[in-house]
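Still learning. Show one?

>
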Amino acid sequence: MSGVIAVMRTRCPPWVIRSLARAASLTILLVALASCGTASAPTSFELASGVRGQVADIQFLSGSEGWMSVLKQPSGHLLIQLFKSTNGGALWTLALSSPADGLPGAGWFHFFSRQQGVVVGSGLNQVLETSDGGLNWVKLTVPPPVMGPATVSFLNLSQAWALSIGAGAMGSEEAVVYHTSTGAAGWKAIARTPSFTATSQPAAGTLPVYGDKNGIYFRSDTTGWVTGAQAVEGYPWLYMSTDGGRTWKYQSLPLPKAWSQSEIMTYNPIFTSPTEGILPVADNSALYICRTTDGGATWGPPVQVLPTAVSNNQHLSSFIDPESWVFLSSRDGFAVFHNAIWITADGGQLWQRHSLTSGMWEIVHLSSIGG
């Protein structure tokens, strides 16, 4: 089954709805999460099965089997729970709960098959792995230390990279790049920025300390990017590695002269094949994409995605959040924006709004089936 999962919330009494709608010749599976609502937009949910909390992520391996992480914060302590559905989201059962299973904090999870999955805690030193579809979880021993919260890019169950952010001040952040080729327990630091107190010139290929880093992404075992922004007008913050993350080189973009007076932010690229991909880029007021047909070795000029009038910073960040962009091919993509599903059939340049729900619904997450 080819399609997209849309997680939604409503102010109606708690219930669960699953419906199928046709758009762009692809199937969109809508899983509605009802809130115990108030007049304002809710931030927590309750399913018929008693699931409560803030939906953090969702992944469907097929049209029926899916996983969902839910964050709870009782007494100020952030906990993560992992739920499994075998009927397309109509019913969810608890598969993992913390801290009883050793994983407090805002976790991240991914399943590579129906049997193999991993949950990474708020620090890389907290990792659980399953090889039997979530029936049993093994807590892996990870060598310390890890600087702080990390973003993770898994190529497969064995191969992954993580960007761990440390101290930051005035548009700069210390960071460490970790890599594993032996699963989630084998993290090793392979690159790091200079410290704030460093006085010597950094070696060639060093990831710079300046810039606010927002993500890391690898499309192969050698080629990846770290993205972010810095308070320098006309300078897109984009660094590329071609040796598996050990060394990094600044990658320029063919930006128009008008951008010389804009602060520019880059976001994780999205690849739909080994050669074709898009790179979301934002200036002070609008969202753009740069395309590649050579695997990211070069990027084309930015093409505006949304009219400036509707692209303020708040909406912009939610629209270009990688969790909100789902591409099923180089042309067909989906996004959540302005309480609607937006669909593109030309690879992200033109988006059409589809109001698949009434005004009482709010879409909060998208995920591709199988991804």
Observations:
- Residues 22 and 175 are 44 Å apart (CA to CA).
- Residues 11-27, 34-45, 307-314, 356-360 have pLDDT under 50 and may be disordered.
